[in-house]
Amino acid sequence: MMKKIFGLCKLLRFELPLAAGICVLLGQMFALSGIASLSRTVAGFLSVFLISASILVMNDYFDVESDRINAPERPIPSGLVSPGEALFFSLFLLLGGLVISGLLGTIAFLISLGLAVIGFLYNRYFKRTGLPGNMMVSLSVGTTFVYGGASVGYPFHKTVVLFGLIAALIDLGEEIAADAMDMEGDKLISSNSLAIKWGRGVALKVSAVVFSIVVLLTLVPFILKWFTVIYLIPILVMDAAIVVSTLKLLLSPQDGRKYIRVLYLGATLGLVLFLLMRLAGV
Questions:
Q1: pLDDT tens-digit readout, 94-124
Q2: Domain range spanning residue 231?
Q3: What are 112-158's pLDDT values in tens digits?
């Protein structure tokens, strides 16, 4: 029983839904220039956490054949969780997330429903399409900021949109780089990724260009004086993780999975620091 629970928890990839929830909280803060009510804070975070987790579990459900090659230690190919159990778990998480999002208003609910639909379409039909699929995932990630703004009545606040774009591009670069690491398994399932079409080196260079754009965009709020200079601290933490990991990806692609994870965790750490500073009223 404990192994089953462990397998289900591993399907969640906890850090990814956590990052999505943090993006929602930041979207709320950017929209309000302050902190949302406790009920909207909890509902916004929890709804996207559950929907994001649902999409990730469903990804494992549909991706089991590729994972037998690329990641045989994952819960389904390793036998910890059956495909049927994973599907039921995914639907359970999705239902919970949608119900909670409904408490935040019509616009927030429709955005969350759109995220769920995009997640399903990607997992079922677009995962092997290469760049179009990558862009669907990155759109979903960026939309978490807009969802945060929508949950407090301001979905298209300028700062919300900018950081949504930054988050989307970070994810796009990661998706392209991750595809470059998964070439062997993806060839077996006829994937059309940039790495397979143009080679691993080209794909990693494209991801490096995307990450470079991200670093430049993170400076925009300070150039336009949207934030005080003190907020450069978390931004520089995020940018440092992006720059170092990107260089490592280009120089040591054989260790690419490790550097992609470092990049993601570094970017998440930067966002967490930003969030904590806002909460502390810095």
A1: 999 999 999 999 999 999 999 999 999 998 8
A2: 2-279
A3: 999 999 999 998 888 888 889 999 999 999 999 999 999 999 988 99
Residue 211's CATH number? 1.10.357.140
Alpha helices in the chain (DSSP H): 2-12, 15-32, 38-62, 64-70, 83-101, 106-121, 131-151, 158-181, 183-188, 194-198, 200-218, 220-223, 232-251, 256-279
The residue assigned the tokens 């993780």 is 241
Query: Which whole-number Å values give the CA distances from 173 to 8, 156, 157, 205, in the listed order?
Result: 28, 24, 25, 10
Residue pair 94/116 in contact by the 8 Å Cβ criterion: yes
> What is d(CA 94, CA 78) in angstroms, rounded to the nearest whole number?
24
3-state secondary structure of 157: coil
Model-level pTM?
Answer: 0.84
Q: How far apart are the first and last CA of the chain?
A: 46
Dist. CA 45–CA 52, nearest whole Å: 11
Q: How many domains does the chain have?
A: 1
Residue pointed to by tokens 């995932």 = 137
Q: Among candidates 17, 75, 76, which has minimal Cα distance to 46?
A: 17
Burial of residue 103 (number of CB atoms within 10 Å: 0-12, 13-18, 19+):
middle
**Residue ranges for the chain with pLDDT beneath 70:** 1, 4, 67, 69-71, 73, 183-190, 253, 255
Four-residue CA torsion sign, 47, 53, 56, 60: negative
